[in-house]
Every structure is written in structure tokens, then in C-alpha cells.
Amino acid sequence: MKFLKIYLLLSLFFFSCKNESSSIVYIHSFQRTQTDKFIVNIKKEKGNIYYKYSNKKDTIKDLHVVFNIKNDILISDKDTFYTIHKEYNTSDFSYKMYQQKVVKSHNRTLVFNKNYGLLSSTALGADFLILKDSLSAIKNEAIFKEIILELNRISK
């Protein structure tokens, strides 16, 4: 019986560890032409995936995003984002684009993949790109322009 309890506790520990991961990402802000280092923690729990982007130097910059797997929606800053059936593709991932159904002041688009997290946010005064590697400003801008072109592509 004692071994069974130990086995169950170890199984629970290893199972719960598989539902969480963390990595370093670089968030490039186009308003400040600056790149900040963040840690993204990803946690799967009860049909949702939680993404927490943390900046150790400035916690005001922290960003929280929840992906509801069943409904394919994103929740960020108390706003809900729905897929707009447009995608941005790289060699590694296919990212879906999400927008709010009701635009309050300006349109905001989130570019997202459930395995990667956020790639980009486009909004008046809040454009940023999130990458696993720190790239040059020119490369960051080229990637962001590709996303904007895909967002504005007219469907046939």
C-alpha cells in the first residue's frame, strides 16, 4: 500500500509537470524600437492554456493571455478575441489571427499559435512582436510587415 501511494504521488507530480513549461522570449515594441527579455510560462488546465509573459525588471509590462481550446478564443486584459479565419505561416508554425467582435476604440489583432503563444499584436500605439530569438530591428520589422500584409490580404 505504501508503494502504491508513492507511485501515485510521483505519477501526479510528473503528469502535472508535463502541463507546464517556460522559456525566454523577446518582445520587440515598434513604438519604442526596443527589445525586452521576458519569461513566458505556459500552463494547461481544465480546457484552457494560460500564457504569462513576465518581465523581471518591470512587472507593469506583464501580459496574461488565456486560450480556450474548445471555443478557439483568446482572452487578454478582460477582452475576448475571436478567430478571423486568417493565418500567418512560418516554416515552424501556422498562426491564427484573432480580433474582438466589437471594436471599442481601435482594432486590435492578436497573432497566435497554441503551441507557441503570441507572435504579435497589432493595435494603434501597441504594436509588438514576440520571438524566441533576439533578431535585428530590420528583421523584426520585415516579419511584422509580412503579418500586416497577410492581415490585409483580400480573400478570394
From TrEMBL:
Organism taxonomic ancestry: Bacteria, Pseudomonadati, Bacteroidota, Flavobacteriia, Flavobacteriales
Instruction: Name the species this protein comes from.
Output: Polaribacter marinivivus
Q: What is this protein called?
A: Lipoprotein
Q: Which domain of life is it from?
A: Bacteria
